[in-house]
Write a structure and sequence with these properties.
Blueprint (H helix, E strand, L loop, with lengths): L3 H10 L12 E4 L6 E7 L3 E8 L4 E7 L8 E8 L2 E8 L15 E7 L4 E8 L15 E8 L19 E6 L17 E6 L3 E2 L5 E9 L7 E9 L8 E8 L16 E2 L17 E6 L5 E2 L4 E5 L7 E9 L8 E2 L2 E7 L5 E2 L1 E7 L6 E2 L6 E7 L1 H11 L3 E9 L4 E10 L2 E2 L4 E3 L8 E11 L4 E8 L8 E2 L10 E7 L4 E8 L1 H6 L5 E2 L13 E3 L8 H6 L5 H13 L1 E8 L13 E4 L4 E2 L17 E5 L5 H6 L4
Parallel strand pairs: 19-23, 24-35, 29-40
Antiparallel strand pairs: 1-2, 2-3, 3-8, 4-5, 4-9, 5-6, 7-8, 9-10, 11-22, 12-21, 13-16, 13-20, 14-18, 14-19, 14-22, 15-17, 15-20, 24-34, 25-33, 26-32, 27-31, 27-34, 28-29, 28-30, 28-32, 31-41, 35-38, 36-37, 38-39
Length: about 625
Amino acid sequence: MVNILIALVVILVYVGSASAATDHTHHEVLDENGDFTLSWKFDDVNIEFEAQAKTRGWLGLGLSPNGGMPGSDIVIGWVKDGQAYLTDRYADEKAQPPVDESQDWELLSGYENDTHTVLRFKRKLQTCDDRDRLVTKDTLRLLWAWNDQDPEDETGPSGPVYHGSNRGVRSSALLRSSDIFTGLMPDNYLTHDVVVNNVTIPTKRTTYWCKVIEMPKLQRKHHIFKVKPFITSGNEGMVHHIIVYKCHVNPNRTVLPHEHPGHECYTPNMPQDWGECYAGSIIGGWAVGTGDLSFPEHVGFPIGDEDDGGQVLIEMHYDNPQERQGVLDHSGLTFLYTPDLRQYDASMLAITQTVDQTLIVPPYADEYKMDAFCSSECLDAFLDEHGGEIHVFADQLHAHLLGRKMRTRLIRDGVELPVFSRDDNYDFNLQYYRMLDEEVTIKKGDTIMVECTYGSAHKTQTVYGGLGTDQEMCQSGLLYYPKMNLAACSSRPTPLNVLSFAGVEEISNDIYTQPLTDIPVVKPAHMAGMTYGDVVQGITWDQNKAQQFQDHLKRGNFASFCSGNTITNVNTTLFNTREGPMPKPTRVQATVSDGMCSAGNSGPMFLSPLILLTIFVSTAVSIL
């Protein structure tokens, strides 16, 4: 996928006489060569596009649920002899898409010059046509294509001819704001680069790479108000995400020379004292498909405060499926910060299923659901220490390649409030923070849940929780204010809950001082001596059994965990490993607007880039 920074460069140096629509609020380059650009704007009813392609023939744009042609809503248009044409189409197969009986796309204008065809068109977000895609705040896959020949007719042999290699797909969130927060830059601000140097990306699919870096020496608190990515040219397809953790005070922490590349995370080569930084606050990040991250004018991420040790840990996630060799990387983030403090300190709270083999996605499942939660007991303790409520203004949903749908839910007094963050068409390669239409207040007694739906029908082997791209996660990251001392809150089905599905009746009581997969089975007698790993790997799956397993886990017990930062006074051992049933709130049915002809997703808006969650904290706390 083309990085947004590269896309912007392409727009700036584009020398064709066609130019981006200045009255449109959104602009994307859909192909790596900059030959197909798309601009758009929207309101509560309509969405309007301007498509520009480097052709004097036809161009096409499709709204696809999954990146393929079948099921796509397609528009094809061209300009011939000074006359613009536009046709509303649909696709049931990989073939010339037939013309839709209901022509819902409206041509607004069109022209061509010596190199480009430019078409402007619009339609309603909800057309009530079964062959049209409902445009929501979910992720959509945009299909693009063109051919250098104008069609003679709308359909048939003289209709639009095959596009050949001039086609592709790009994920996008159409109903997102044009910018994160567009307030004026403060008069007094500074910048600091946090980048890796001379990293040779390892020749394996997934690598987490770490380095501790010195920050400016500050005499008092400052606020970070913007984070900008710098991705080494040519590495856009290999740098999947970047996270920066603020380290607490430790004058003896290992700091390597500037030119040293660092070490692979979570390995013996990484200095042990670097791991302390995972207990600090996340102060910045970037992920594939995103750009700059700015914060609302009333909040900022604090640095130079009481728990700041003057150093940060940068963690790079490299995704190298081609196992390319000899690729050097110098990527990182630029922090913009100011001494002019904003009203509130912001922070991030991770809600996650623990990243281990209790996260099990069976094969052959069209939809497999699981939930993770932050217990009210843990949350209450930190809210009490903090002295009040917190207010969530954004949320990031994160799973890996099998993720299909994700939701963040809030339970109050046993009743689930309206879902405040969701994506019913999740894409691992487009990870935005979703800015909430209205801030959500978290109060004492509340329970926060994240629901993940996976699609594993194409899999023949079980996928477990893990850091790797081909493993899975289920996480939600809340951006909120004012800052409290809770860093991560997680849950998992108890090992016995998982194993009882396979007939295990009793396991060793010593489950938190040894690796999960090594926990021994005690009863029944014919399974005694087997381990957790033996049992789960021995389950034979089919589609029905996957559904039965999903239902079985929900009826059993879960363990909850929480982790504070280094300055908290909360004794988290009072809550960690506490076992009990999954919260089962009463769900209130959403009211469907009279103007809607079918139920649509009115989920939260996509605005800001991903800051991935604290994997180390959520995993380590599960064994305390």
